[in-house]
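for the recovery benchmark. tokens below, seq after
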């Protein structure tokens, strides 16, 4: 997979993660994922990836 393909997929999943995080109060992530046709394993894979990136950014030496 080339870098541009990775960048497009990353941007798409970042949008999906943000939409799920902004789901209506009282709706579970699982329910939101089912209603939007998103596989739970894929969602949590990307969520972990984004959280790891964010953590690594906070650990950079200043």
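predicted aa per position
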């Amino acid at each position: 997979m080339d870098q541009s393909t990775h960048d497009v997929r990353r941007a798409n999943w970042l949008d999906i993660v943000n939409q799920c995080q902004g789901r209506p109060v009282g709706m579970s992530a699982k329910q939101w994922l089912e209603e939007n046709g998103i596989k739970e394993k894929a969602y949590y894979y990307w969520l972990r990836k984004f959280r790891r990136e964010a953590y690594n950014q906070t650990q950079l030496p200043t």
